[in-house]
Amino acid sequence: MVRSDARENRARILAAARAAFTEDGATSLNQVAQRAGVGPGTLYRNFPTREALVLAVYQDEVERITATVPGLLAELPPLEALRVWTLDLVAAMRKKHGLGDALSPTAHQAITEQTYGPVVAAITELLEAGKQDGSIRADADAGDFLQLTGALWRAASSPVDRAPHMLALILDGLRTQSAR
Known about the structure:
The chain has about 180 residues and is mainly alpha-helical. It is about 75% helix and about 0% strand.
């Protein structure tokens, strides 16, 4: 069992790294340790390499996003929950691209494989809720939706953020005839 102070240190390191890497992808691990209020040894015990830390930050973000699905579905109709959730995912993907400079091609592949399942499961949950209430087409597929939304984080990075408009078009295509 991990001690509570060790869990707290890990959480502080992840939060500091997320903020630091978002601001400047070239931030050193020593700068992250300072920002987290821990010594370099504590950081390296938790994350022996820069790549390990970047991967953990990204994994933590995906876990946070996928965990929001039940709450969104409890508060919003499925299509609106899917819209809100997808915009949050787009923001995380943009951060991933900021973190990407620190990752080797092998690590990029590993994080993609590691997070694909949880992301598709979250999308499936959102789509199924909409299928059940009749607002989302029966043939809507989570993998297809993820591929379609892949263009959104590139669009969100342009000078004019086209992601919300493009997402509205995608969501409109998911609506059943009776929901239009």
